[in-house]
Amino acid sequence: MSKVVTALLPIFLVAAGSRMGAQTSTSHEQPCPMHASHMGQEDHHAIMQSHGDYAMGFPHDKTTHHFRLTESGGSIEVTVNDPQDLSNIDAIRMHVAHITRAFGEGDYSAPMLVHDVIPPGATTMKLLKDKIHFEYLAVDGGGQVGIASDDPVARAAIHDFLRFQITDHRTGDRLDLDAGK
Predict the structure, then answer these.
(1) Chain centroid, CA 18 distance in Å
(2) Which residues of 79-104 are buried (b: 16+ CB within 10 A; e: fewer)?
């Protein structure tokens, strides 16, 4: 038994040294104790943005998303950052019109592709699709999906869905109801 321990000790020490070296900063500062969890969040966000660029057909870094909650439901709005970016305005409008139709049919495959999860509220919205009204609107520099329902369960699902989008896309939009709309 001691021969096994003696034989494995150098392997253990090399492995431990490699792990310690990977965690050691080359500067004099101590690394953040939460570094791994921050990197996991950043990795998720970068992957989500990459998936979004693919699914939406336009780059996230040239556009701005807003997800707004209202008493009746809410809205999703995408606009270009540069008003002269006509090709991305067209791409946004095509995507937003497509999403409006897809959501109306209960198809939430695009958000699932973008986020790698079923967004909260999406399953309920799919089940209650006949109680939810989706409306496409071209806006300056992009497009908007209006989402409304008279059904309180459907509205709660819409709000859950939009809150998830706000958080995952890091838009900074309000997580409570927008009293102004």
Answers:
(1) 35
(2) bbeeeebeebbebbbebbebbbebbb
Q: Is the pTM of this model over 0.85?
A: no
In contact, 162 and 69? CB cutoff 8 Å: yes
Residue where the block lists tokens 């709005």: 77
Instruction: Provide the 8-state DSSP code for 107.
Output: -
How many other CB atoms are found less than 10 A from the CB of residue 107?
15
Q: How far apart are CA 57 and CA 113, in angstroms?
A: 13
The first and second tokens of residue 131, run together, are: 């109680």
Instruction: Tell me how far apart the alpha carbons of residues 53 and 49 are, in angstroms, rounded to a whole number.
Output: 6
Positive or negative, the CA dihedral 122, 126, 127, 129 is positive
Give the residue among 168, 144, 157, 176 at the shortest CA–CA distance from 69. Answer: 176
Distance CA 79, CA 63 (A): 6
Q: For 39, what's the count of Cα atoms within 13 Å in the CB-facing half-sphere?
A: 6
Q: What does the domain layout of the chain look like in residue ranges?
A: 35-169
Local structure of residue 71 (DSSP, 8 states): T
Q: List pLDDT tens digits, range 48-77.
A: 455 455 456 667 789 999 999 999 999 999
